[in-house]
Amino acid sequence: MLDRRLIDCYQRDLPVCPQPFQAMAERLGTSEAEVIARLQRLQALDVLSRVGPVFEHTLAGASLLAAVAVPEEERDAFAELINQAPGVNHNYAREHHYNLWFVMTAPEEQCLDERLNHLETMLGRTILRLPMLESFHIDLAFTIPWAELERI
Amino acid sequence: MSDFIWPSEEGKSKSLDEQDRAIVLATQAGLPLVSDPWTAVGEQVGMSGEEVLSRMQAMLERGVIRRIAAVPNHYRLGYVANGMTVWDVADADVERLGREIAAIEGVSHCYQRPRHLPHWPYNLFAMLHGRTREEVEQQAQVLRACLGEACHGHRILYSSRILKKTGLRLAAANLQTASTETDARG
């Protein structure tokens, strides 16, 4: 139960104060040591990816969403080339003609173009370049289906 | 759910000084789980705990840090269906409708992106997450209804495999290069 409350209460914001885990413990009616032990355990179980800051993406300089269409049977080989290219930080296989979707980053725009051009040459395929024009909203918190998880 | 961090997006780089960058590098994989994490970070980067905390607070205020949180791994929690929905929406309406669908339950990210005709007609992207594809499809129906006649077509692209995901790990080299100009002191 404490695990749930920890995640439900703190997946959006942790108290940013000198002793954040103590502040959490006071709110949850437990000890700081218990909060720390639970967070360590949840991290070890990979229920929590981490406890820490979520940085604004633009910190990385320039980046964009890119897609490429490759033969499905050669997909993993193409994916490997993409993953090894400098600046690639996500790569998803998706079920579509454009079947590899990745994010290319670079310190600045010109370098981003160069990286994409270079990768395009390596792949021998045109890369669909889909920079963000407008961001409407980002909500990164979830309702966690605890009851269902327990049944699994 | 920042580990869905999905498209790291384009934009202007926010200015960070050398100390801020050191803090970013030291904390992006998570804070040390100790009573005073700021002092523990400070020991790594050669600053006091007070300095680390006040710089992190300042980065939060400036929007460089979106939030400091216990970041769940949603795949581990059963959110295994990840659908990137893409919509061909009348340009005149895309901004208004983008805001509307962004507010719908289940939408984690919502962006306008350029079309590339004739291959790619879609200009509005919304990421949906559910425990099953059926759940994602139900969410997509809600979006479809909201977009109404302005929508000329859509697709749901499910991710079949994650081939690489490094979250927002900033390569030290990236930060270094980005800072070369401002730090060129000698």
TrEMBL record, chain B:
- Looking at the record, the residues that make up the Siroheme decarboxylase AsnC-like ligand binding domain are 76-164
Protein's UniProt keywords contain Cytoplasm? no
InterPro entries annotated for this entry? AsnC_trans_reg2 (IPR040523), HTH-Siroheme_Decarb (IPR050684), NirdL-like_HTH (IPR053953)
Enzyme class, first EC level, given as a word: lyase
> Domain Siroheme decarboxylase NirL-like HTH: where?
20-66
Keyword Lyase on entry: yes
State the EC number(s): 4.1.1.111
Q: Which reaction does it catalyse?
A: siroheme + 2 H(+) = 12,18-didecarboxysiroheme + 2 CO2
* Any GO MF annotation of the entry: lyase activity
Please give the pathway this protein is involved in. Answer: Porphyrin-containing compound metabolism
- Keywords, alphabetical: Lyase
Q: State the family named in the UniProt similarity comment for this chain.
A: Belongs to the Ahb/Nir family.
Q: How does it assemble?
A: Probably forms a complex composed of NirD, NirL, NirG and NirH. All proteins are required for the total conversion of siroheme to didecarboxysiroheme.
What exactly does this protein do? Involved in heme d1 biosynthesis. Catalyzes the decarboxylation of siroheme into didecarboxysiroheme.
Q: Which PANTHER family match?
A: SIROHEME DECARBOXYLASE NIRL SUBUNIT, TRANSCRIPTIONAL REGULATOR, ASNC FAMILY
* Protein name per the record: siroheme decarboxylase
